[in-house]
Amino acid sequence: MALFSIACTIPAHALTNFTRNGVLWEGSFEGDTTALTTAGTPPTGTTPAWSTFDVSGGSTSTSGGIFTITTTTVAQRQSWSNTFGMTTSSLMTVEWLANVDTSVSSDSFGVGGVIVWANDRVLNFDMKSTGVSITQGGSEIGSVGSLDMSVDRTYRVTYDGSLSSDKWNLYFDGNTTAAWSSGSILGASSASVNKVVFGDYSAGAFFGKSNWDNIAWTDEGAYAPVVPEPSTAALALAAMGFSVIFSRFRRTLV
Domain residue spans in the chain? Predict the structure, then answer.
């Protein structure tokens, strides 16, 4: 009931302290900003509020609950940062649902992406037209290729600074096995801060169009995707069965 109340009372453009995909998130940005402003306005006025990270040229728009970022030259940037609810924890989980318009994108590293700061370490996860590039200090240190980036895909990044290896992991679409793990890579050094950046934040590597449904974060843990418990799966199946039965019942009344 509490989750239902949250969904009903918090504006569509942002959520705080809510559960999605098995994680209690501290904050999020939801692509449907029409409840907040007119299309084309960056998400700086949302709750939790985003700060401008690097904005120079380019444009944004909102349609059908999707927030679109468009840059047409490598010099244009559209990106924002958030620290809401975060401390300087050595734990981070960031998840986003997005796709890349591969028909208009030109990239050497990525079309857009997410930068994750976790205490004193930072890595970039850049969405390319053919996959994902993981960069550190402007250099690629890992990649996942041969992906159809034009379809909606759920990305999840986790960081656990207490581990001796594989502190960073990247997962796709709820898969419990990481598509990329960092091994001995620590991430670039940074000031102690936990922060998330999303958008097109590079002036020299890429431009194009990325479509964002949502992005959420928490520094309460490094939460890898998990297989739903049998009871949860059973409830979901039961709900589907009830929906089918109810639909058939309604048709008999017409």
Answer: 2-223, 229-254
Are 94 and 223 within 8 A, CB to CB? Answer: no
Give the C-alpha separation, 59 to 189, whole Å: 31
Task: For domain 2-223, give its CATH number from 3.30.750.24, 2.60.120.260, 3.60.15.10, 2.30.30.60.
Answer: 2.60.120.260
Question: What is the three-state SS of the chain?
Answer: CHHHHHHHHCCCCCCEEEEECCEEEEEEEECCHHHCCCCCCCHHHCCCCCEEEEEECCEEEEECCEEEEEECCCCCEEEEEECCCCCCCCEEEEEEEEEECCCCCEECCCCEEEEEEECCEEEEEEECCCCEEEEECCEEEEEECCCCCCCCEEEEEEEECCCCCCCEEEEECCCCCCCEECCCCCCEECCCCCEEEEEECCCCCEEEEEEEEEEEEECCCCCCCCCCCHHHHHHHHHHHHHHHHHHHHHHHHC
Q: Give 133-165 pLDDT, tens digit per residue.
A: 999 988 899 999 999 999 999 999 999 999 999
Other beta carbons within 10 angstroms of residue 42's beta carbon come to 19
**pLDDT at 171 (0 to 100):** 98
Alpha-carbon span 20 to 9, nearest angstrom: 16
Q: How many CB atoms lie within 10 A of CB 182?
A: 22
Which pTM does this prediction carry? 0.82
Instruction: Output the six-digit token pair for 119.
Output: 């205490």
